[in-house]
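Usage example:
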Amino acid sequence: MSCLTPTVLSDALDALTIEPDALILAGGTDVMVEINMGHRRPTSVVAVNRIPELRSWSHDPATSTVRIGAAVTYAEVLDDPLADLLPALAQAARTVGSPQIRHTATVGGNVGTASPAGDGLPVLAALDAVIHLASNSGNRDVPFTEFVVAPKRTVRRSDELITAITVPVLRGWQGYSKVGVRNAMVIATATCCLAVDEANQSVRLALGSVGPVIIRATDAELFAASAVDFDARLVSDATVKEFAVMAAAASRPIDDHRSTAAYRRHAIGVLAGRLLRRAFPNV
Amino acid sequence: MSLVDIRRPSGRLGDNAVRPDGVAKAQGSFAFSGDLSADGFLWGATLRSPHPYARILSIDLSAAWKIDGVEAIVTADDVPGKLNYGLQVHDQPVFASDVVRYVGEPIAAVAADHPEVCRRALAAIVVEYEVLTPLIDPEAAIDGSHPAVHPDGNVIRHQRIICGDQSLVGEVVVEGTYELGMQDQAFLGLEAALALPGTGGRSVELYVATQWLHEDRRQIADCLGFRPEDVRLTLGGVGGAFGAREDISLQVHCCLLALRTSRPVRMAYSREESFLGHVHRHPAKIWMRHHATADGKLLRVESRMVFDGGAYASTSSAVMIKAVTHAQGPYKCDNATVDGWAVRTNNLPCGAMRGFGVVQACFAHEGQMDKLAAACGLDPVEIRLLNAMETGDKLITGQVVENVAPVARCIRETAALPLPDSPVGGFDGDPMRLPGGAGLTASRSDIRRGIGWGVSIKNLMYSEGFDDFSTARCRLADGVATLKFATAEVGQGFVTIAAQIARSVLGVDEVLLEPIDTTVGSAGSTSASRQTWMSGGAVHGVCCLVRDKMLAQVATGWDVPVERLVIDGAEIVDSAGALRIPVGEATAGLSFDETYEYHHKPTTDLDENGQGDCHTAFAFVAHRAVVDVDAELGLVKVVQIATAQDVGRALNPLSVLGQIEGGIAQGVGLAVMEEIIQTDGRVRNASFTDYLLPTMLDMPDVVATLIEEFDPIAPMGAKGVGEPPCISSTPAVVAAIRDAIGRDLSRVPVRPSDICL
Amino acid sequence: MYQLHVNGEVHEVRDAWVGESLLFVLREHLGLMGSKGACEQGECGSCSVLVDDQVVCSCLTLAAAAVGQQILTIEGVAPVGSPSDVQQAFVDAGAVQCGFCTPGLIIAANALLERSPRPGEMEIREELSGNVCRCTGYGRIIDAVQRVAAARGGTAHDEAATRPAGGAR
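Running the assembly step on the lines above writes:
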């Protein structure tokens, strides 16, 4: 029974090599719930939130990307200048749990837990983020959309550690919306992230809490790209309406105690339509 | 014995005295029941049924006994006294032995040296079940289509109210069916207790968070086979109650484990266990038909009310009676036909929660009043003023309202309170002001504002012939008063006003409170908005006895006729002479010790037609809600609640305001988010992740006016204030949502899909 | 065995299971009962403490992973019997009823006022939204925080903005 708090990455990777079943602890806001409820009984823990390269982020203007260390917290995402570079992620960050949760919950942990309701995940999906994995047998990069394969299941091997997430910085409007029945501390009923990529004249739309994994509504994206006026930032009411229908059609929601499939599908349509209207305000 | 010293936060009746336990609570040094421990204590934990209805075929404890650190395992076989308990009828097993009737029903309890060992031991107990078809639909309990799930049958109680002309048909008739989901009290301080075994195992001491020490003691003693005097209860610090601590939960289990191991035992529920381990607000389905004249005068109310009591009776009978007897609301009405059912199912047991049946009735009758207003071309305020009840009016039970009944004044003064001065979304553009908040779901243009009303009547104290009383003892020596009572302080602030009463009556500054325990007579329950009236009445009564003895001594000593002596501030004064001496000086070397029991006037049972003076007293309140609604997404932001509440006299206005704001928060919660969701008897959301309580970002502004009309029937003129705030706030919010979206809503909590799909 | 730095003192934690939360260790190993648990999943804030100056839920903090970090609990805010201005304001404003949520709220309110000495009402609501109170409906809590801000700012407490709304006396 042990708890390691390594301060260099190699120590963490060594620990995971020796004990691949060790529990990886980042902010703890997901795994501690499981431990407290008796659903998980760890015998050894590797806490990764003191490894400097996991605790920091960097902006590379040359490649127009931000590399976010896996143990960067949502409170840090909410602060400038990170918020300025990735506004949709900052908007998502403001909806994560409570201030207490945001002070510890990490972007890497959100990715690692891979809940369909993970608040930040639709943003990572919409922006085509890449997940960086490290282990003593080598490092690899996996696009976020390929990283999560099922609810709470990812392609990460147990000896691998999520070290960082690279997020492209797009030129163009981006925004995030989340439906919950409370104005704080609420698990998402439905979430949307819409990002405009002016350079490629494309529209990205990712949906959360409405399927087993985060969904990219590609049909709706292609339709929007063909129907909006990128230069004048114009969109017609008919396009907004059709986009909403296509977004809703892309969702694969279920009934559960938090909501119904019918409501979730409806909400996705409303959110997607409103986000498109905000992106192309016709002014 | 430790005394709570409340010298510093002085204050007399009518002052905003601060809580004597406030600093300790703010510093974290106040001991809640879950904070208590004793040398060599063990942890206790409970094994619960995973099935809503099943026969127990066998219970195998052998594997659990083998786990290192397990010190005791008890089941129904180990209960030495009565096997069943209950507040009104004893129908609930201490441990299920033959049949389990709800998910979460206790089957066994273990004691071990670490909570994790308890967890492993519970997992190692093997129970073999034959799963039975649960009774889920309350209507199946009434129509007899499901076999009895309990020897007492599936109907807990049926009561009719037949009043006046049974064939009257109004010029205007409106009808509706209303539903309420199951609300949880969700106090923050989870169920917890510490049991200390007495020598020889023939007595036990229990520190526990409860609403009624003496009733707990009666039930514990019965189940342990002890005399009541061999069970001593002391109130452990109580982290809120709201009705959920009226029934016992872990009390007998904890005592049994302590007696079995001869060691102190601590039990503390988790949040999930708490959801399963205490009673809830009854889900209800209420049909109503209102008859009125064309100009809106209420003539007759017809109603059928069905309350799902869950697996055991608890207070279901009384809850249903409150509902049927309040069916007319705070309105004059001479004719009624009401049919009430409290039934048994295999859902979670239900019982007391703040508002106690009247919450359910009020949601229905206020929906009806709005329908009536619409049908008669009146606005919501006009219809309510037109029908407002007054002192001297007769209820549909035949009982005359003797209390002050300022219903019209409550409505008028609520209407006079300012509406929000800011537009939708406020002036600062903070998205947190909009429905959806930080979720950034809406723009201002997506939002519609609505206004709605709710007005209610609530009985105070217990009903139907119950001999309701409270006891207080007062000692006065050297100018210091010491009070003793068993009144459960659950956060409501009785400890504050008890001292205010003593200071005002006795003219003292220094008041000490003794521990709250069973070494004095019963105070009755901290429920039914009754403690200010009942225990306040007892403290007031005993202080008056002491004062009279003190004045008699002073009269003799100073040779002044006793009838001329009065207390003025901190002095004894001869009203017709020059004598003026401080109470402390006058009582130097003297001591007085009195005990007093306060009883309210007797009430009667209801007859088969629901007629009888079954209630003690009534209080009234009006609420006006302003909401912003995103009609397309179905999201609601409650912006403001205005209220004027009939309080009789505010003994501590700040404390009254705390009850008003806190009660409104619970009413808002029921209106838009709070519900225990069950599917086939299984709870889907027994956690604070999925049972949502209003946060600071969900709570509206409250503007409140206290209507102070001294009630001559009430001790000190003061009515109970705890329940009314959460009764009509719920229908007011729902009416405001209806107003915003122009759609009928008949169920709470209102879900987003109810608004937009 | 491991060591925790709590309220400026080093505490040794012995015989602990690796899965124990900081809340459990504070209460059951160190005897610091002021931090309360009401949900064990970060949804109520009753267990709020500061870890390296950040308000966190101690129920979601693995105690064994908090070695070397500076932990401040309610017991470290002010000596017993000498309440801080925030604690006294909560009492005076009527922000305490059952009091179970109060220690966590004091920790969160302290941190808010340190960072933002004159918080607006919406800022108070958002920053304290992780602390659930079931008794008060929050009105008096907001008032208490505003009272402290006003008193620390050296300006007169704004009576009109923060007086109890019950005005019928």
